[in-house]
Design goal:
129 residues; 6 strands; 2 helices; 16% helix; Thiol Ester Dehydrase, Chain A
Amino acid sequence: MKLKTHLKLDPSLCGEVVKQKEGYAKVRLTTTQQMGADERGLVHGGFTFGAADFAAMAAVNDENVVLAEATSRFLAPVVVGDVVEFEAWMTKKEGKKAWVDVKGSVEEKAVFEGSFVTYIPATHILDCS
């Protein structure tokens, strides 16, 4: 399956799609020093959330998909050097909305879980008024 959305994202910041099928995507984020929030190497949660969001968008895989709503839980810290894998499953699609559950882990340890509501307009969101 070919990725149709968020094609200009920098994989060094938001991860890369390593597996994808209809309604599912896996994104791998290799954390770097630039993501560190402090001298101990704690990765800023924005990078974790960004990769989870990208996984949700890739699971929906529509060129116009955007995030409408999200709930998230950070279950454990991510530190510089961790490789985080995010798995995203589309659980429901109704009209222009799709719901996606995302889980993130470092090896077998859960670090993130979230529920994302996406919106799929007929045209690019910047063309909508």
